[in-house]
Amino acid sequence: MRRLYLAPFGLHTATELVFKAALDTGAEPHEICYVTPSPRKLRDAQLRFIRLFGRRAFIPPTFTTPGMLSRNLHRRFGATRLFPSELGPLLVRSLLASHRPKPTIGYCAALAGFVNDVKLHFAADHASLVARLKKGLEGYDNPLARALEAAQVLQRYNELLHARGWADEPDIMLSAAVHVSSRLEPIRVLILDSFAAPNRPEQTLLAALINRAQTVLAMGYGDSTDSPDYALAARFTEFVASQSGFETVQLAAQPQPPTPLFACHSQEDEVLTICRHIRGNLWPEVSDTVLTFPRLNDYSPLIRRIFPQFGIPFTIYPETRLAASAPIVAVLELLRSVSSDFTRLATAAALSSPFLARLLQLDDSDGDFLRYSSAVNNYSKRAGIIKGRRNWQHLGQRLAAAEGLRPADSEATFVAGLEERIRSALKLAYGAFRSVDTLGSGARKLKELLGRIAFGAPAREQKPLRMLAPEQQQLYDLLDALVAFERDFGAIPADTAELQRVVARLASDSLVSNNPDPDGILVVPMTETLGLCPKHLLFGGLAENALPGRYSADPILPDRVRTALGMPDMSWHRDWQRFHLRRNLESASGTTFLTFPTSADGAPILPTPYLDLKPVPPPRTETLFSAREIQIAEGRRRRIQLPETEQPVEFATDREVQQVLAQRFGPDREIPVTALEAYRRCPFRFYLEHVLGLSTPDEPRFDVDARQWGLVAHRLLEKLYAGGAVPLERLKESAVQALDSTLDELNLPQFWQQVIRGVFANLLPGLVACERSLRKEGYTPQCIESRVRGEVAEGLRVKGRMDRLDSGPGGLRVLDYKTGSTAAVTVKAVLEDRTHVQLPLYARLIQSRGRIDNIGVYSLREPSII
Q1: CATH code for 706-865?
Q2: Strands of 62-64's sheet, edge to edge?
Q3: Residue 550 gets which letter from DSSP?
Q4: 323-513 maps to which CATH number?
C-alpha cells in the first residue's frame, strides 16, 4: 500500500493519524521507519508515538531525518571520508590557483556555493549544464565566462574529491540511496512526514526508501484549493506523484477564527507583551508552548534578559555562526594579534579572555584573573600602546613615562608583575606561529598552542577534549580538517595573517546548533517549527522588514538562469516565506498570539504585507508579573518623579571631606584658569576629573595626538620668542632652529619627528604672514608663556599660564595659541554669551600692567588671528 495524505495547515492531528494508519497494518512499532526533515519534529513525533501507543513495553520505531540516515549509512558502509562543507572555498581556491592569481576567499566561497547548489538541484550531466548555461547567457560575455568557469570548477571539484577518497554531503546522500537499495533490510512500514520541498539528493534517498518499503504512508501539506500558500509544499506532492502506486487522500480541518495582530512600540515592548500574555493567560502550563520569530537572532538577547524577570522557563534553539561564539572570538583575536604585530585591541581582547586564561598563567581561584584581565586593557591604553611586541614587553616603562609612575609605588609593583606575565604570553604566542608557512602547519600549531594553554578550561582544571563545549570541539574539527586537506590536496602557502582570515571565514560559514534538554517554552526560528502543532503558539516579529525577508542574489548566475536550471530563485524564496508563515499561523491547537514592533531605532515599521490583519493595541492588564513592573507601579502610586529617586551625596556635614575640599579649592587656593573653563562647560565632569581625579584615557592612535602637537607648538613658539621679537627676515630660520631644539628635548620617534617637520613646513608661511600683519600694526611679543595669578572676585583666586602678550601703540594684546578647532571662540561667545572665560580672565589679571587693547586667539591649525 502506498498512500499520500494531504493535510491542510489547520489539521493538528496529522502525525497521530499516520501513526494509527501504520499500526493498523498490523506492523509492530520496531517495524516502522519514520522519516521527517526537521530535528524538532523528530523529537515531537517520538513523544506523540509514546502517548499514542500507551504504557505497554515496546521496541520503538526508527526515527530519523534524511541527513541522519545518510551519515549513519556512510559510517556503516561508506568507503570515503566526509568532506566538510566549510572547506569548499579552500578546495575551489586551490583549483583556481593555476590560472587565477590569488583568488579572494569571498569569490571562492561564491563558487563553492554554486557547486553545492548544482549538486543539490540540477540532475543532468556536465555537458547538459554547460549547454544550458551557454543558452541562458548567450550574448552576455562576462556573466557567461564566469558561469563557465564555475562549471569547470564543479567538474574538477568532483573529480578531485573522488580521486582523493572524499565525499561531500550531497554525494553521501546519493550514496546512501545506493546503500538503502543494496544493503538495507526491507522496511515493513515507511512514514514520510512533514516534507515540503526536498532537494535532489533527498528525493533520491526517499525514492530508494519507498522502493524498499512494503507500505508507504506519506504526509504532506495541501488543501482542496489552489492557494499560493501551498506552492512550496506542492514540490513534495509532485515528487510523491512521480513514484508509482500512490493514492492521494485529501484531509480536512475545521476553519480557525481570525487572530488579532498586536502592535507593540518596539522589539523590547513586544517581548514584554509576550511575557505578560504568558503569565496572564497560559501560566503555569507552558510546556506545550512554542515562541517563534522570522528572525530569532534579533530577539534572542531580549528573551534571555526579559523572560527571567517574569520567572518564565524557556529553551532557545538558535543556530548561530561559530565565529560569533565567545571562545572562538577569543581565538580569532589571538590570531589577529599575532598577525598584526600585537595591535592593542586584539592583544588585550585575547589576554583578557577567560577562555585563554592560561596565556597569563593565571589561577582564578583567588580572583587574580579578573584583576589582571581588566588591567591589561586599562594599562595598555594608559601607556599609549598602539602595537608592537617590544612596546608590550616594556609596559611598565611606557606607563612610567606617560604618568610618572615611581618604582616604589604599589601600583608599579603590580604593573611589573603584569608585564612579566605579558612577556611570557607574547613569547609563547609569537613562538608558536613563527615558522608558519602553510594553512596546514598554521592549523596544527594553533591546535598545539590551544592545547598548551588549556583552551576553554576553568581554573586549575585540565578539561579533556571530549568535555569541550560544542563550539570548541567544532573548532578543533575544523583545524584537523585543514591539516587533512593539506595532506590530500597539497599545501596552501599562508602566513599567520592568512591563517586568521581563513579560520575566521570557515568559522563564519559554520553553524553551531545548540541542543539543550527542553524546559519550559520552546523558542525556535520560524522554519524550525516545521511539522509542530503546539497547544499555544506565540508568533512575534511579523514586520515588513522580516517578511518578506531580503533575498540574496546569486553572484554567479542571474535569477532567470537559476529558474531554468531548477534552482531556488526569488519565486522559491517568496513561496518558502509564505509557506512557513501560513503554516505557523494555523499550527496551534489552542491559542495563537501575534505581535510586531511598530518602530526600530526611531523609524516606523509596518506589519508584514503577507497578513491581511488590522493591527490593534495589545490588551491591557492591571496584574503585575515582575519585580520591574512592581517598582514602576509603586513609583506611579506614590507619584514619585525620576529626579526624586536620586540620592545625592551630601558633603556639608562631613568635616573630613570639607577639610580636603578647602585645602584644594578654598579661598586661599588658586584655581587654574583652564580648570575654571572646564567647570563652566560641565560642572559634573569637573567634579569627576578635578575633584575625584578620574579620567578616561583616549584610545592610542597612530598619529601625533592633539595634546602632543600642542606641546610641540607651545614649546617651539616659547623658544622662538625667548629673547624677544625676531626680525621678520630671520623668522623662518629661527623657527626651524626652535623646532629642532624642541624635538630633541621631547625625544619623539624619528618617524613622528619627520611628520611634525612636514606639518610645520606647511604651516610656516602662514605663521610668517600672521607675524607680518602684527608687526604692521606695531605689535611685537613682550612676554611668552607668562605665569599669572590673582583674585578675580572675592574669595576666588585663579592662576594660569598666558601663552603670549604683545605690546604696541594701542596698549597690550592677550593672545592664546590654539592647535585645535577655534569654531567655538567667537566675539559673540566671549562678549555676549560669555561661554569662553579664559582670555577675559587673563586680561583681568594683567590689567595692572597697562591698557588692554584687545584679546584674541592665535590659531596654529590654519594660521590666523581671531
Answers
A1: 3.90.320.10
A2: 62-64, 32-35, 187-193, 213-221, 2-7, 247-250
A3: P
A4: 1.10.486.10
Q: Are 358 and 453 in contact (CB under 8 A)?
A: yes
- Of 523, 786, 798, nearest in space to 668 by CA: 798
Q: What is the pLDDT of residue 467?
A: 45
- Cα separation, 344 vs 380, in Å, equals 7
CB 253 within 8 A of CB 8: yes
* Grid cell at residue 724: 624677544
Q: Are 196 and 579 in contact (CB under 8 A)?
A: yes
Residue 770 CA to residue 817 CA, distance in Å, equals 13
Helix, coil or strand: residue 50: helix
- Rounded CA separation 785/671 (Å): 18
CATH of domain 262-318+515-604: 3.40.50.300
Instruction: Kindly tell me if the per-residue pLDDT of 565 is higher than 90.
Output: yes
Residue 438: other Cβ atoms inside 10 A: 19
Give the strand pairing for 289-293 and 521-525: parallel
Residue 326 contacts residue 294 (beta carbons within 8 Å): no
Task: Give the integer Cα–Cα distance in Å for 558 and 457.
Answer: 48
Alpha helices in 290-409 (DSSP H): 300-306, 326-339, 344-351, 368-382, 389-393, 395-403
Beta-carbon neighbour count of residue 557 at 10 Å? 24
- 8-state DSSP, 716: H
3-state secondary structure of 521: strand
What is d(CA 839, CA 816) in angstroms, rounded to the nearest whole number? 7
Compute φ and ψ for 562, nearest 5 degrees: -60, -40
Q: What is the pTM of this model?
A: 0.74
Bridge partner residues of 811 (DSSP): 808
What pLDDT, in 10s, does the model give residues 665-679?
A: 887 778 887 787 788
Beta bridge partners of 670: 797
> How open is the CA angle 733-735-736, to the nearest 5 degrees?
65
The b/e string for 189-211 (b: 16+ C-beta within 10 A; e otherwise) is bbbbbbbbbbbbbbbbbbbbbbb
Neighbours of 524 (CB within 10 A): 21
Q: Are 578 and 231 in contact (CB under 8 A)?
A: yes
697/325: higher pLDDT: 325
48-84: pLDDT as tens digits: 999 888 767 788 999 999 999 999 999 999 999 999 8
Q: HSE of 43 in the Cβ direction (CA atoms, 13 Å)?
A: 11
pLDDT bracket for residue 457 (50, 70, 90):
low
Asked whether the predicted pLDDT for residue 168 surpasses 90, the reply is yes
User: Which amino acid is residue 150, in one-letter code?
Assistant: A
Give residues with Cβ within 8 angstroms of 324, minimum separation 6.
none
DSSP helix/strand/coil, 641: coil
Helices (H), 586-654: 627-637
Ramachandran assignment for 820, one of left (phi > 0), alpha (psi -120 to 50 degrees), beta (any other): beta
**Residues counted in the chain:** 866
Q: How confident is the model at residue 459 (pLDDT cuts 50, 70, 90)?
A: very low
> Within a 10 A sphere around the Cβ of 630, how many other Cβ atoms?
11
- The cell for 97 is 590557483
Contact of 696 with 685, CB cutoff 8 Å: no
What's the pLDDT score for residue 703?
56
> Residue 800 and residue 332: Cα distance in Å, rounded?
50
Distance, CA of 199 to CA of 121 (rounded, Å): 6
User: What CA–CA distance (Å, rounded) separates 282 from 313?
Assistant: 13
Among 701, 725, 721, CA closest to 713: 721
- The conformational region for residue 850 under phi > 0 = left, psi -120 to 50 = alpha, else beta, is left
Biggest distance spanned by C-alpha atoms of the chain? 119
Q: What percent of the chain has pLDDT over 90?
A: 47
In this model, does residue 423 exceed pLDDT 90? yes
Q: Which residues of 293-312 are buried (b: 16+ CB within 10 A; e: fewer)?
A: bbbbebbbebbeebbeebeb
* Dist CA 606 CA 566 (whole Å): 33
